[in-house]
């Protein structure tokens, strides 16, 4: 399948969805729930594993299963962003700018504290 950027992916997802008349089911509520459900399926691959066990797990055919869950999460996210008429790249860059103010390097470097505990 041709496509190397987000725009191509969104077009392919919209085409796939429209061919099946699934847009009627893709409300913001349903898409957001689907993101959470697919994220949980992704997390299942790592549940109860140590960091070392997770690394070994990914050296097998399980990596393909993990890739599919990542694709599911991202596909629903792309559809939701498209349907809400959001520029996902701009949204991400705006959030990075906001987080840079909340987490200044001088206070947060090497720390995992939430911004209100820095």
Question: What brief labels describe this structure?
Answer:
Helix Hairpins; 67% helix
Q: Nutshell version of this structure?
A:
With 118 residues, this protein is mostly helical.
Give your account of this protein's structure.
By secondary structure, the protein is mostly helical. 67% of the residues lie in helices and 0% in strands. It folds into two domains: 6-86, Helix Hairpins; 88-118, no CATH class. It has six helices and no strands. It is globular and about 50 Å long. It starts with 5 loop residues before the first helix and ends in a 10-residue tail after the last helix. The mean pLDDT is 95.
Overall strand count: 0
Radius of gyration: 18 Å
* CATH class category of the largest domain: Mainly Alpha
Structural class: mainly alpha
Mean pLDDT: 95
In which range does the helix fraction lie?
A: 55-70%
Large-scale geometry: globular
What fraction strand? under 5%
| Number of helical stretches of at least 4 residues | 6
What is the CA-CA span between the terminal residues? Answer: 46 Å
Runs with pLDDT <50, length 5+?
Answer: none
In the CATH hierarchy, the third-tier topology of the largest domain is known as Helix Hairpins
Q: H/E order of the elements?
A: HHHHHH
For this structure, what is the CATH homologous superfamily of the largest domain?
MazG-like
Which assembly state applies to the chains in this document?
single chain
Question: How many domains in all?
Answer: 2
């Amino acid at each position: 399948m041709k496509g190397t950027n987000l725009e191509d992916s969104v077009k392919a997802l919209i085409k796939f969805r429209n061919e099946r008349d699934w847009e009627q089911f893709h409300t913001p509520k349903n898409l957001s729930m689907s993101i959470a459900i697919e994220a949980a399926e992704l997390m299942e691959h790592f549940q109860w594993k140590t960091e070392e066990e997770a690394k070994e797990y990914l050296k097998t055919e399980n990596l393909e299963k993990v890739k599919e869950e990542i694709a599911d999460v991202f596909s629903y996210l792309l559809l939701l962003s498209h349907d809400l008429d959001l520029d996902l790249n701009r949204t991400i860059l705006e959030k990075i700018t906001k987080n840079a103010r909340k987490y200044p390097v001088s206070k947060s470097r090497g720390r995992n504290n939430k911004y209100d505990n820095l």
